[in-house]
Amino acid sequence: EGPKKVFPVSRQNMGWAISFVLSLTYLVLLLTRGEAAASCSFSQDGFCVTNLSTNGEGLKVCPADSNSHLWAWNVDAVFTVLVIALGIMTKQETSTIGGLIAAVLVHGLLHLFFSKNNCVLPPTSGSALLFANVAYGGFTALISYLAIKTVNAPLALNLIATAFGAGVTVWLSQPDKPFGISPIFMFTQLLTSFVFWFNEQNNQLMGDLFVLPCLVSILELILCCGSEGGAGFFNKIGGHVWYDLFLHTSLLMTYFPGKNDDE
Asked: Fewest Cβ atoms nearer than 10 Å: which of 24, 28, 56, 195?
């Protein structure tokens, strides 16, 4: 056998490698277009929100019965049922089903919260902001720790990487920054794609499908608003709902590891 490549790319991990490159592109675009993206009238708190508008008092509002956060919640609710049904049908471990339920349902409840609050994250400060940061950072850290654990990294390295990633994510998501909560999507995309790229036991089909939400995140950032400030192409076709649809489709492949082409 020849020397191992620093960045090995095979058919098995190609989807994860492409996802990582797309996530890096998203990172660059987010950091360089942050202010421009925030000024888009249909972009709010890191999401491209369909049917978002500004009322006479200058406040952002959305119809409670027709907005992309509500549609995302509906998608997430359907996928929660699928997670349970397919998990039972394929005789998965209870912990696997429970983990996927938490990932999908918590994501959906976040969208439901936004939908019921005019699609805007309520302003927080003081102790409320501290609590939100702790919960947000803790959730980010949990995702990071579990993802890194799959490649059997030393515990100390895992904890250092997790603390750093969660800290940067929370810092970039503060109210004085223009990114909303999109840094958590940026971080989890980068981390997940990188970790599974180098995991020899990765799920090839999941990696192939994970390309789609990573691509959608870029489209959401650059095509939410048109050149004249009106609704852009991505906003007109449903906004953020596509991210949830493709992300959870990828997650469902946890139940269907299949056989990698390289085997």
From this structure: 56
Torsion of CA 212, 215, 221, 223, to 10 degrees: -90
| Burial label, 197 (beta-carbon count in 10 A; 0-12, 13-18, 19+) | buried
* pLDDT tens track for 108-145: 998 998 999 899 887 777 787 888 888 888 878 887 88
Residue type, 199: N
Residue 43, strand partner residues: 48
Contact 198, 151 (CB under 8 A): yes
- 3-state helix, strand, coil split of the chain in percent (to 5) is 65, 5, 35
Please give the pLDDT value at position 163. 93
Work out the number of other CB atoms within 10 angstroms of the CB of residue 242. 23
Q: d(Cα 72, Cα 112) in Å, to the nearest integer?
A: 8
Please count the other Cβ atoms lying within 10 Å of the Cβ belonging to residue 20.
26
Residues 6+ apart with CB under 8 A from 169: 136, 137, 140, 183, 184, 186, 187
Segments in 52-125 forming alpha helices (H) = 68-89, 94-115
pLDDT digits (tens, 9 = 90+) for 170-201: 998 888 887 888 888 888 899 889 888 888 77
The CA distance from 202 to 35, in Å, is 37
Are 172 and 164 contacting, i.e. CB atoms less than 8 angstroms apart? no
Q: What is the mean pLDDT of the segment spanning 245-259? A: 87
Alpha-carbon span 100 to 98, nearest angstrom: 5
